[in-house]
Design brief:
The protein is of the alpha+beta class and about 425 residues long. It is built from 14 helices and 12 strands. A hairpin with a 6-residue loop joins β10 and β11. α3 crosses α5, α9 packs antiparallel against α10 and α11 runs antiparallel to α12.
């Protein structure tokens, strides 16, 4: 197996730490929660400080779940602040490696392949990781945690399983740690890439720990889970052949998506309003990028105490960036598959994209009317871009169940 020197660096309690730093507070001694106070006790806590985590408060929960005896500060989420801080950290990474050897995994996590830099800096991977983390703290005030491994998989698992619990927030795993550390991971959901549904299927087969996956050959998992089964078996044995530099290819197919976790249980009666608003946002994104889509996907997830949901896609007869058409398709999927259960998450995506440089004539549509509608929508886009996303709203956006105003405020980086 090829052996590289991979660093997986995560920013500890990122959103909450950003808010503390802006206030001149220490995240390790400050009880701060990132959540939208306007949504009441049902608001999701997007992040909590390490101080609150040590008190047993989960990073993703609901406000009403925080013990009553714990006093805390509530900070409304500001995505513009978090994106700015993330960019600062990425620039620090680029002080040490080239962009070809960096893979940004999320807003607060990245992989760095430092294999070819160790001789240049005359150092080892652990020392270099400490230098990078120290620079992050000195320049941004944020605290990094780091997993080091011979491939991306083991670096990520070293981060998730061990480094976050070490005093120096750093852990290095080698291939020798597979039997003693990787195989002992339990429950299975602690393993990167194994979700609750896959874990349940494996549990039903008598597989409780990662090492138990070796009870069956790779062919068994490939037949049962397809190509994901093959990856499951390889990962359970610490094998990951991905390479940051070699795998830096443009995605074969681009798509735009939008999803939101709702701050309260929605029903089959008020969810269409959310679908309408999200369809409008998705269409706006298509217009901004001068794209049209050939496929629309829609999905929803029911409340946690119910579980389940669905996700389906529809291919269009002709490409579109029209919000009414996107809404019509999503509503059709919703009506066909929804059950009368409490709804907590809605997702919409547009894929099979193409440039919007032509118009497909349709005998059953009024071309002039469509052109006038597009002109109005583009005019609204221009006004909202100049004066804020809430400058022009539809009457339905003022209803109590609407979420578009609060979401627009978050994107703008403030909350009213």
């Amino acid at each position: 197996m090829e052996e590289r020197n991979i660093l997986c660096i995560d920013l500890k309690s990122f959103f909450a730490s950003c808010e503390c730093i802006e206030r001149g507070l220490n995240p390790f001694t400050t009880p701060l929660v990132v959540a939208d106070p306007a949504r009441g006790g049902g608001a999701i806590t997007l992040a909590v400080t390490p101080y609150l985590k040590n008190k047993g408060v989960p990073s993703r929960g609901r406000i009403f779940e925080i013990p009553k005896n714990i006093k805390y500060i509530t900070a409304p989420p500001r995505m513009s602040l978090y994106l700015s801080k993330s960019k600062e950290v990425i620039n620090i990474f680029l002080d040490f490696v080239s962009s070809e050897d960096m893979h940004v995994y999320s807003i607060d996590e990245a992989f760095l392949d430092v294999t070819d830099y160790l001789k240049l800096y005359n150092t080892d991977d652990v020392t270099l990781a400490k230098r990078i983390m120290e620079k992050i703290t000195n320049q941004t005030g944020l605290t990094g945690t780091c997993g080091i491994g011979p491939n991306l998989l083991l670096a990520k698992i070293a981060l998730d399983i061990e480094s976050k619990h070490n005093k120096d927030f750093l852990a290095k795993w080698t291939y020798d740690d597979i039997k003693t550390k990787l195989w002992n991971i339990e429950p299975l959901t602690e393993m990167w890439g194994i979700g609750s549904k896959t874990a349940k299927k494996l549990n039903d087969l008598g597989i409780k720990k990662v090492g138990d996956i070796n009870k069956y050959p790779m062919s068994f998992y490939k037949k049962r889970f397809g190509i994901l089964g093959e990856e499951l078996y390889l990962h359970a044995n610490g094998i990951d052949n991905s390479n940051i530099k070699k795998d830096k290819l443009e995605p074969k197919e681009k798509s735009y998506s939008i999803s939101q976790v709702l701050y309260k249980d929605y029903t089959i009666y008020n969810t269409p309003l959310i679908i309408k608003e999200m369809s409008s946002n998705l269409a706006k994104r298509l217009r901004e990028n001068k794209k049209v889509c050939n496929t629309v996907s829609f999905g929803l997830t029911y409340s946690r105490n119910v579980g389940g949901g669905f996700h389906h896609a529809r291919k269009l007869l002709e490409p579109t960036d029209n919000e009414d058409k996107i809404y019509e398709i999503c509503l059709s999927i919703f009506d066909n598959y929804v059950e009368d259960l409490p709804i907590r998450k809605v997702s919409i995506s547009a894929s099979k994209l193409s440039d919007n440089n032509y118009y497909q004539l349709n005998l059953f549509e009024n071309v002039v009317e469509n052109e006038e509608t597009n002109k109005i929508l583009k005019c609204i886009d221009t006004i909202n871009e100049k004066f804020g996303n809430n400058a022009l709203l539809k009457a339905s956006n003022l209803l109590s169940d609407s979420t578009i105003r609060s979401r627009n405020n978050k994107i703008a980086g403030h909350s009213k």
